[in-house]
Design the sequence.
């Protein structure tokens, strides 16, 4: 790349003739040209616009102009119309490569008693070259005062230093923008992956690993509320801590989680050592972001991340507001994912379970009967299937209320449970019907079912509140494999015929 700097003295040659084309012919091979004392609309240069003339002489070059001196050069034409012009004197830059931006800097000027001191300038341009943006200057210093030149050079040092600092700031800002966009994309991908997962344990694992990796955290801890104790217990941890260090970190997280649950809002602590509530844990972590996990407005858990460790560093740093914003976005995905996974888990749990009584349903009972028949072997071991029906449950619902009907159902279930063995199977097969699978019922299966019916009926009849107005009527049927049915359908059909009635 060829650079040329040339003070053209408004195009004047040694012969005193103004001829810009001669100058262009001498420097035309240059890639970047810095010119000084280029003027516009001055009498001595025939009121020409030298910037336009030079641009025409270098048709393959981009150009910018920066005047140090700027005066009114307007005049009226022969018809008396005003022709607006600026009489200017300054610097010009031409470049074969595109000029991305330019700035004109005024240089210091002091009053000189013996000579005219013109305003001097430094024209700055950023050129796009293959290796990256290149900053160049066309500078015109004072020629008659060393003192003024020294001041102008000092100002140039400031301009160049400021430009470098500004470049660093811009580069860092652009890097942050790119990192933010990359992080946002990563959060979206992690969120989609979590939401598409229906296994709660896997969602929790993805929640901590995703939070730590996307947000560059050294540790991530997720707690969920235990349905039995009501405590918020750690369900997933991702990070490098183990042993004693992990114990200390978990104690810190317990304090953080309590605070977050009370606040019901996200918490950012940039420096744990400076926080009065957490400074005792300063040796365990430097910085934390934590948030409650909510479901229908109720806090069901917390997610916390500790110690930011950027990929380009080997030490921890503090989380900042941008990290907080991205964390909140991640948490919104995690909340939806946890709710979604818990819903599917609940659905799987109750796919074979009656929610009102907690008993397996008919599908489960049918499956178990089929399994026991297969397991019966040859010669087959006996199996009994019994059915208990609340014959007048609809009448109880009609003449009393739904609450009493539910109590009747629950009392019947409790009675059946109390008189069955641990390996017997009790299921709710219809709104008013319960099925019982009795593996190895013994030689007198009928007597066993009769004893069960009498015991359940006694339990129900003892509760007078269930029998006021309308007494509970129960009926029982049963069938024994293989005598009364060699397959599941036959056994169920025979067992649904009442053989015993109790009131």
Sequence:
């Amino acid at each position: 790349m060829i650079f040329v700097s040339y003070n053209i003295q408004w195009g004047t040659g040694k012969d005193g003739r103004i001829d810009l084309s001669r100058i262009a012919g001498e420097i035309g091979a240059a890639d970047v040209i810095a010119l000084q004392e280029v003027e516009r609309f001055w009498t001595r240069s025939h009121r020409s616009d030298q910037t336009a003339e030079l641009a025409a002489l270098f048709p393959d070059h981009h150009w910018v102009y920066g005047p140090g001196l700027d005066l009114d050069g307007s005049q009226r034409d022969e018809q008396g119309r005003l022709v607006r012009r600026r009489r200017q004197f300054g610097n010009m830059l031409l470049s074969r490569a595109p000029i991305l931006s330019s700035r004109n800097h005024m240089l210091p000027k002091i009053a000189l008693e013996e000579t005219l001191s013109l305003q001097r300038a430094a024209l700055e341009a950023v050129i796009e070259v293959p290796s990256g943006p290149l900053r160049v200057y066309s500078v015109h210093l004072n020629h008659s005062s060393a003192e003024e030149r020294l001041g102008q050079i000092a100002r140039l040092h400031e301009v160049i230093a400021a430009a470098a600092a500004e470049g660093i700031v811009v580069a860092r800002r652009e890097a942050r923008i790119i990192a933010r966009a990359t992080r946002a994309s990563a959060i979206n991908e992690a969120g989609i992956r979590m939401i598409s997962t229906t296994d709660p344990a896997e969602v929790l694992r993805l929640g901590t690993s995703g939070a730590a990796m996307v947000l560059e955290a050294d540790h991530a801890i997720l707690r969920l509320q235990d349905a039995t104790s009501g405590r918020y217990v750690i369900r997933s941890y991702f990070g490098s801590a183990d042993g004693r260090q992990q114990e200390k970190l978990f104690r810190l997280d317990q304090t953080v989680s309590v605070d977050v649950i009370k606040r019901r809002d996200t918490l950012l602590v940039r420096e744990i050592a400076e926080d009065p509530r957490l400074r005792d844990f300063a040796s365990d972590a430097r910085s934390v972001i934590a948030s409650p996990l909510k479901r229908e407005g109720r806090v069901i858990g917390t997610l916390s991340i500790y110690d930011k460790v950027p990929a380009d560093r080997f030490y921890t740093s503090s989380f900042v507001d941008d990290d907080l914003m991205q964390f909140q976005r991640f948490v919104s995905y995690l909340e939806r994912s946890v709710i979604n996974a818990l819903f599917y888990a609940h659905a799987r749990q109750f796919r074979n379970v009656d929610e009102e009584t907690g008993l397996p349903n008919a599908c489960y009972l049918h499956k178990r009967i089929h399994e026991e028949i297969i397991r019966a072997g040859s010669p087959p071991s006996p199996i009994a299937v019994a059915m208990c029906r609340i014959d007048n449950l609809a009448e109880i619902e009609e003449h009393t209320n739904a609450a009493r009907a539910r109590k009747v159902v629950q009392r019947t279930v409790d009675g059946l449970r109390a008189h069955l063995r641990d390996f017997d199977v009790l299921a709710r097969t219809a709104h008013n019907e319960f099925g019982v699978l009795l593996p190895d019922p013994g030689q007198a299966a009928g007597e066993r079912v009769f004893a069960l019916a009498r015991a359940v009926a006694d339990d129900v009849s003892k509760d007078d509140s269930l029998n006021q107005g309308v007494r509970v009527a129960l009926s029982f049927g049963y069938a024994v494999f293989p005598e009364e049915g060699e397959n599941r359908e036959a056994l169920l059909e025979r067992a649904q015929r009442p053989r015993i009635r109790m009131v």
